[in-house]
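User: Quick sanity check before I run a bigger batch. Here is a single chain. Can you write out its predicted 3D structure?
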Amino acid sequence: MATLTQGDDSDDAMDEFMDNFQKQKYKNAFSENNWEEEFDKVPMFMKTAPENIDPEKHPDLACIQSIIHDDERTPEEQARSLKDEGNDYFKEKNYKKAVVSYSEGLKKNCSDPELNAVLYTNRAAAEFYLGNMRSALNDATAAKKLKPDHIKAIIRGAQCSVELRNYAGALQWCNEGLKLVPTDKKLLELRATADKQKREAERDARKAKVKAKRQLNEKEALLAAIKERGIKLVKNEEHRASDSEDEDASRALADLELDGLGSQEVTGARVYMDEQGVLHWPVLFLYPEHSQTDFISAFCENTSFRDHLDVMFGEELPPWDTDQKYMPQNLELFFEDSERGNLYQVDVEKSLLNVLQHQRCSVKTGTPTFIVLVSGSPFSKQYLSGKKIQRLK
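Assistant: Done. Predicted structure follows.
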């Protein structure tokens, strides 16, 4: 429990504790030998109350008595008592209760600006150790407004600004404090830290700007390469034909910036252009008969479908192909016309680029998608029944 101390000397003790609080440990815990004696000092468990209450021997009773007779004291006296109570809580590292005590002290609206400045500064310290940097900074600012030369408030303001990564603000706090106390060690250290981190933040910001510009240039170059090849990009069912080529380009670039939605988010793959100017696409294969899929993260546009099928269904067939029907020579590939719903059969000897350049082929969300069926199988006949099939020329 927090104890009430008297006099202005407690401020010096509080300052000393703040400087060394991390090294201090709570040493007033009960032990097996003294718990009965200690309990008898707690007002709730006292068997008899002393006739004359000595604040030194019975600080808790003195605190209760002061609360009972609170109205008889001036606002300054009440605020000072609450400040001392907050200091005791702070020393116990009970920062939440310390904040409450300091706040109650400020509510007394005493006419002593120096006392109010101390209350604000101490509350800023408690908020700081609770991690409430913005509240701590506000209190430090309020303390400095009441007492412009209050070094402790200035130091706290600088610390909060550093934690909030407001390095320019931290430097301003430090410079103002060093005008008052040019040799203050803490302010000199804080200014050096703020200056270093400010320069690092500015450097990182410049790097991020250069990187963003480079990425934008790469995306624009990628879009130009795709347009040059005559490949159509669409964004799911939300795509609508536009009479404006510029609008189509802007939409396509936006699609690329979203990284092909499904492909980038699910697999981490996206279309890219290598140093030789060759495009590599993420390609999805669908096997509707078995509800299975295959994904190639970087399908070179100059590579034929046959090359990939021979690898995918070469020496080892997939475990779901229990009938072992999915052999390269038995497979048929199709893409779907996204506007008309027709299926186009792909010549597996053709390259990916050759297929993507077909006027009815389009790339949804950055990922070309193809349907794979076993030629002449019962499922294939049923699946294709009623659909308009055209062979890719």
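Strands lie at 232-234, 272-273, 279-287, 292-300, 331-336, 343-346, 362-364, 369-374, 389-391.

User: Great, the batch can go ahead then.
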